[in-house]
């Protein structure tokens, strides 16, 4: 039977209560925070500014907070969660301490929740970046425990003590009896918080576990330590010369000097040497027993060897723990009489420091599940069965070991220590036994994939949305170009078409989608820092300590960041669900009007049919315009037919509707005195089609390219200089109908640049630039794009045909390195 406390714990009450303004439900969804001007303004501008920052309240998963979670008032079941880690010896190496320093590791810090936080017992796998490498923690429900009211009171009291220890990891008052040091120390951060479970970000209780149960014996000892500290502060108790160590490993005496412990009990204790400077907040773990070099020496001159133990404040940053060293740091000797002892052994304190990163990453994982459900309801307009499909998933949060190299800088790639740590993790086989991905037919990307699409680059995570934004932006340009192309007249020029498209793809339009659906709550925007951002579960920040844009309550996001998230989300759909799924998302956004969600079309060509006019109608419209200055002359018509046959042969495609080919090769200067259809509409379309096809090719061929490399490579391929040279090389320029005298001389100059003589795209562009004349060069590049657009229209949008033609026409260029 667990022992009970005679006096029930009462949550601390502020002696000067003030109305809380940080209540979760009362916080504003977002607050304007202009980069310049008055930061207190909370008015949202009618036209969003991409460079403007706004603050949004921090959100937590519904499963981790009220009202889903609620502390009961009577006997009830609680769900106990813990996590597996690599072997103890591996963790000691990753923490840069000596082998065996952690000692007894049967105990752990865990979390209990009134209700389960996930349907699957194996909730998620999350990364923790320690001093020398990555340790994967696998969060799982280990047991269901029943607590009566007195046990719940004790559990809440224990949580309060652990929360204070976690907040004040190195506060002088916990270890030192030096009153001057305590006075000079900064104000305790824990005093900034109020017990308020219903309004807290996380509603769960910290506890000490052993053998998948709550360790009540250890809990009692830690509560006694807390009482001893209060009595000592009041001057009631005195320092004990000899302290007995309880079997739980918790020291209940306060204050405790290392010399007061039995010599065989010092190993694995956490201490703070009195000799450390006041500005040094370090803690040390004792790595061996007391060294008595001579029996005649006084006890207070005995020394111990200690290793500094990190608090791992940057455990959520992917650039932490990249050292390839395998040996630990050198220990430091301290006198036992100078070392004040922490109530927790080093292993329990270490597991306590992991609570903030584990809770943060678990929240991210569960938010991605929640977002997946919201997206399903948004796209399919149905809530039926979506939660039952998504909720059983186990979320594997990406880390250095499984993130694509293109996501990380070269210096941030996984290390040998990362791989060795994972090989020693007893829970690694779980990943293959649980469901981590949605069915292939599901219309939404899975939670793990959504984490990539909602993580900004500045979050310092192993994945970010930059690559998905690259491909998503190209696809968005394609669909919106089709939308504008469908609704424009044959006489519309390129500038008019571009202006119409700009409205659809603008950051203001994309940001409006995020704001309307409140998807900003799923965006990871910054690195997580325990010291500055963590608030213990069940606590809220007191109003008198709140800042207008307090980082513990708010995150800052620009409108452009949220617009980028929409493009990345589109790229995520494109890669995970396919073109139809991506078009369905755009349809729900109001950007595309194709019925791709409920349609039964299968071929890529048939998907775009609604975007193209009937070919006979198009031919009739074109016939009303001037096709050639010698219309009606049979000899000229015969020449035109022969040139068209030759042009189609070099292009490698025979048009069903040759009026499109006439349009694609006609410049506006061809017949200035009469209305002439020219290539501007098809060039506008072909530019987007070519950009998407090349982007998709680079995205798939170079998975290790970062977004900057992808963008640079694409710009070296899809530009007027290179396209003009390819057009001339393939002799496709012969069919251009124009009235530009300088075009012929430009063709001669381009012929002097041989593709076979260049070794890179950059070299090719430099050689072409030596002979450049802006207007003729642009005409040649535009004709190349208009031909691609004409084929796209003629095939009703068959991207496979376009990909084949692009590979044939740009084959030499695509093979060149940047």
Automatic annotation (TrEMBL):
InterPro entries the UniProt entry points to: RNase_III_dom (IPR000999), RNase_III_sf (IPR036389)
GO molecular function: ribonuclease III activity
Protein name: RNase III domain-containing protein
Keywords: Hydrolase
Cited CDD domains: RIBOc
RNase III domain segment(s): 450-578, 644-796
Top-rank taxon, per record: Eukaryota
Keyword Hydrolase (UniProt): yes
Cytoplasm listed as a keyword: no
A Pfam entry, by short name: Ribonuclease_3
Entry-linked PANTHER family: DICER-RELATED (PTHR14950), ENDORIBONUCLEASE DICER (PTHR14950:SF37)
GO biological process terms on file: RNA processing
């Amino acid at each position: 039977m667990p022992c009970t406390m005679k006096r029930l714990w009462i949550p601390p009450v502020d002696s000067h209560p003030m109305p809380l303004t940080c209540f979760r439900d009362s916080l504003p969804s977002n607050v304007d925070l202009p980069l310049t001007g008055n930061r207190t303004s909370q008015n949202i501008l009618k036209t969003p500014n991409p460079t403007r920052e706004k603050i949004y309240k921090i959100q937590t998963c519904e499963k981790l907070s009220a009202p889903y979670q609620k502390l009961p008032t009577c006997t009830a079941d609680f769900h106990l969660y813990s996590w597996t880690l690599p072997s103890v010896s591996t963790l000691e190496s990753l923490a840069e301490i000596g082998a065996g320093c952690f000692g007894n590791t049967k105990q752990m810090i865990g979390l209990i929740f009134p209700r389960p936080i996930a349907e699957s017992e194996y909730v998620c796998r999350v990364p923790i970046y320690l001093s020398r490498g990555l340790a994967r923690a696998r969060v799982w429900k280990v047991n269901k425990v029943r607590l009566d009211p007195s046990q719940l009171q004790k559990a809440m009291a224990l949580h309060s003590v652990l929360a204070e220890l976690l907040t004040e990891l190195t506060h002088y008052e916990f270890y030192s009896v030096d009153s001057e040091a305590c006075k000079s120390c900064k104000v305790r951060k824990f005093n900034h918080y109020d017990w308020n479970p219903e309004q807290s970000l996380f509603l769960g209780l910290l506890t000490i576990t052993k053998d998948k149960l709550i360790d009540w014996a250890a809990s009692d000892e830690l509560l006694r330590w807390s009482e001893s500290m209060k009595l000592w502060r009041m001057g009631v108790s005195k320092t004990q010369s000899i302290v007995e160590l309880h079997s739980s490993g918790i020291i209940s005496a306060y204050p405790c000097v290392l010399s007061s412990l039995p010599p065989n009990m010092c190993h694995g204790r956490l201490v703070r040497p009195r000799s450390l400077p006041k500005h040094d907040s370090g803690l040390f773990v004792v790595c061996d027993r007391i060294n008595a070099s001579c029996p005649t020496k006084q006890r207070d001159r005995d020394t111990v060897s200690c290793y500094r133990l990190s608090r791992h404040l940057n455990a959520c940053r992917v650039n932490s723990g990249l050292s390839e060293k395998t040996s630990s740091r050198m220990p430091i000797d301290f006198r036992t009489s100078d070392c004040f002892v922490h109530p927790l052994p080093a292993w329990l304190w270490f597991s306590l420091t992991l609570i903030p990163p584990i809770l943060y990453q678990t929240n991210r994982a569960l938010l991605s599940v929640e977002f997946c459900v919201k997206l399903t309801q948004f796209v399919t307009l149905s809530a039926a069965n979506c939660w039952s499909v998504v909720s059983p998933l186990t979320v594997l949060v990406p880390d250095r070991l499984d993130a694509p190299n293109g996501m990380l800088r070269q210096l941030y790639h996984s290390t040998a220590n990362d791989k060795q740590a994972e090989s020693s993790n007893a829970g690694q086989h779980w990943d293959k036994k649980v469901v981590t991905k949605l069915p292939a037919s599901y219309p939404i990307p899975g939670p793990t994939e959504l984490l990539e699409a909602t993580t900004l680059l500045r979050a310092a995570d192993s994945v970010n949305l930059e690559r998905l934004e690259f491909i998503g932006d190209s696809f968005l340009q394609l669909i919106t170009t089709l939308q504008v192309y469908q609704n424009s007249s044959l006489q519309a020029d390129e500038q008019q078409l571009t202006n119409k498209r700009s409205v659809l793809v603008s950051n203001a339009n994309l940001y409006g989608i995020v704001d309307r659906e409140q998807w900003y709550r799923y965006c990871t925007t910054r690195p997580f820092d325990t010291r500055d951002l963590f608030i213990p579960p069940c606590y809220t920040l007191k109003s008198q300590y709140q800042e207008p844009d307090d980082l513990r309550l708010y995150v800052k996001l620009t409108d452009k960041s949220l617009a980028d998230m929409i493009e990345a989300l589109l790229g995520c759909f494109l890669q995970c669900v396919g073109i139809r799924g991506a078009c369905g998302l755009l349809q729900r956004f109001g950007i595309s009007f194709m019925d791709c969600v409920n349609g039964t079309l299968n071929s890529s060509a048939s998907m775009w049919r609604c975007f193209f006019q009937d070919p006979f109608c198009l031919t009739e419209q074109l016939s009303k315009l001037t096709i050639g200055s010698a219309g009606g002359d049979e000899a000229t018509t015969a020449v035109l037919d022969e040139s068209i046959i030759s042009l189609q042969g070099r292009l490698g495609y025979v048009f069903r509707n040759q009026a499109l080919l006439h349009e694609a090769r006609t410049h506006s200067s061809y017949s200035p005195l009469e209305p002439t259809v020219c290539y501007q509409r098809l060039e506008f379309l072909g530019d987007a089609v070519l950009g998407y096809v090349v982007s998709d090719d680079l995205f798939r061929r170079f998975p290790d390219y970062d977004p900057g490399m992808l963008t640079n490579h694409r710009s070296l391929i899809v530009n007027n200089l290179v396209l003009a040279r390819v057009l001339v090389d393939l002799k496709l320029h012969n069919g251009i109908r124009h009235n530009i005298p300088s075009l012929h001389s430009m063709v001669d100059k381009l012929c002097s640049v041989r593709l076979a003589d260049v070794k890179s795209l950059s070299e090719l562009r430099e050689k072409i630039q030596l002979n450049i004349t802006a207007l003729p060069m642009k005409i040649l590049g535009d004709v190349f794009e208009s031909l691609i657009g004409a084929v796209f229209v003629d095939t009703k949008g068959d991207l496979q045909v376009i990909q084949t033609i692009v590979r044939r026409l740009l084959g030499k260029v695509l093979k060149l390195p940047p």
